[in-house]
Amino acid sequence: MAKAHEYMNLQPEHFDAIARHLHDALAHFAVSERDIDEALTHVAALRDDILYK
Fold it and tell me: What single DSSP character describes residue 45?
């Protein structure tokens, strides 16, 4: 993840916006909140590998 986001200098507000979009897209397609929460937990674990690179 760090290499894929290198030189992008993504900030927390960027990460949070993507997470919101992911949540909304999954909800739109009737994915359960439990499954959405699980997916977002996995995404959140990547935060440090994505931000400020």
Answer: T
User: pTM, whole model, 2 decimals?
Assistant: 0.88
Q: Could you tell me if residue 6 is inside a domain?
A: no
What is the chain's mean pLDDT, rounded? 97
In a domain, residue 1? The reply is: no
Give the tens place of pLDDT for each residue, 37-53: 999 999 999 999 999 99
Q: How many domains does the chain have?
A: 1
| 42-47 own/partner pairs: CB under 8 Å, 24+ apart | 43/19, 44/19, 46/1, 47/15
User: In whole angstroms, what is the distance from residue 45 CA to residue 18 CA?
Assistant: 14
